[in-house]
Amino acid sequence: MPAPAILGSMLLVAAATMLGAPAPDFSHWSRVLVQSIIGGYLGTKIDRATLACARALLIPISISTMWFVTATLLIGYALARWTTIDLYTALLAVTPGGVAEMTVIALAVGADAALVATVQVVRLIVSNVAIPLFARRRASQHLPSHDDSNGDSASDPTHGLHWIVCLSVGALGGFLLDAFQVPAGGVIGAMLAVASAQIVGVSMQAIPTRGRNLAQIFLGVFVGITFTQQTLIELQSSLAIIVVATLATLISSFILARVVQRWMRLDAETALLACAPGGLSLMPMIADELGAQTFVVSLFQLARIVLVILVMPIIFQILIKF
Q1: What's the chain's average pLDDT?
Q2: Which pLDDT band holds residue 108 (cuts at 50, 70, 90)?
Q3: Which residues contact 210 (CB under 8 A, 6 or more apart)?
Q4: Which string of b and e fits 50-81 if b means at least 16 CB within 10 Å?
C-alpha cells in the first residue's frame, strides 16, 4: 500500500472519532511544522533542472484547473437539479478545494455547511485512498524496489545532523507563507524555501526517513480527526448524495488524468496524482514513494487549490445577482 504511514493513521483515527473517541486538539504551529517537514523534503527534489521544466507546464496546468472549475459547475448544477439540495450547497460540496475553506464559504453564503463538510471529508479520504492504490497498481509492473536511502543521505550516520539545515530552512519558509494565510502554506513555503536554496547552489540534505514517517503519521491524524460523529450522521441521512458527488468528482479526475497523460506524455502515476482531488500535502509524498514526478504533482495540486479558492467566491457573487 502506498504511503502506509499516512493512510493507516488517517483511517484509524477517522474510525475512532466516528465511534465517539475524543479528537485530540493540535495547535496550529504543530500542523504547520508537520507540513514544513513534508514540504522541505519535497523541496530537496527540486533543482535548476526541474525548474527549467516548469515553463512547459503552464498551459497544461491552466487547462486542468479550468477543467476542475467547469466540472464542479456541471456536477453541482446536476446535483441541485436532481435532488432537493440548493445550488450553493451542491456547488460547494463537489468543489475539489480544502475542507476548511469550502466550509467557511458555505457558512458565509448560507449553504448547508454540515453537508458540505461531510461530502468534502468523504471525497478527501476516498481520493487519498483510492487514487494512490490505483496509481500503485499501474506502477507495479515497472516500479523498482523502493529504497528510502535513495537521495536520503541522512540515513548514513557519517553525515551527522546536516539535515537540520534543511529542516530549519523549510520551517522558516513554511511559517512565513502560513503567516500570509496561503493555502497549505507550510508545505508550499517549505518546499519553495529549500528548493530556492538548492537552485542558488546550497546543497540540502533530506530529512531522515524516520522523521518523514513521523510527519506522515501526524498528517494522517490531522485528516482523520476531521471525521466526527456528526459526519456519520450526515453519511446516514445523505448517503446517496455523497456517493454520487464523490464518484462524479473521481470520474472527472480520472478523465482529466488520461488527457494530461497523453498530452504531456507523462507516466500514469504522475498524471493520476497530479489530477487527483486529494490533499496538497499527501499527493506529492505519495508521488515520491511511487517514483512519480513530485514537482509536477505539486504544481498541479497547488494551482487547483488556489484557483478554486479564488474563483468560487466570484462565482457565488455572480449567482447572487441572478
Answers
A1: 80
A2: low
A3: none
A4: beeeeeebeebbeebbebbbebbbebbeebbe
Characterise 141 by phi-psi region: left (phi > 0), alpha (psi -120 to 50), beta (else).
alpha
Q: Which three cell numbers stand for residue 175?
A: 511559517
Residue 180, phi then psi, degrees to nearest 5: -90, 10
Q: What is the pTM of this model?
A: 0.66
Contact 253, 131 (CB under 8 A): yes
Model confidence at 151, pLDDT cuts 50, 70, 90, reads very low
- The number of beta carbons lying within 10 Å of the beta carbon of residue 239 is 11
3-class DSSP state for residue 21?
Answer: coil
- The rounded distance, in Å, linking the Cα atoms of 191 and 171 is 10
The Cα–Cα gap between 161 and 304 comes to 36
d(CA 282, CA 278): 7
Q: Which three cell numbers stand for residue 10?
A: 488517517
**Directed axis angle between helix 87-94 and helix 113-139, to 10°?**
30
Cα–Cα distance between 241 and 136 in angstroms, integer? 29
pLDDT confidence tier of residue 100, bands split at 50, 70 and 90? low
pLDDT by residue (tens digit) across 119-142? 887 888 888 888 888 887 776 655
Cβ–Cβ under 8 Å, residues 206 and 37: no
- Give the residue from 172, 215, 212 showing the smallest Cα distance to 196: 172
CATH level 3 topology of 4-10+25-321: Na+/H+ antiporter like fold (1.20.1530)
Q: Residue 168 corresponds to which cell in the numbers above?
A: 530549519
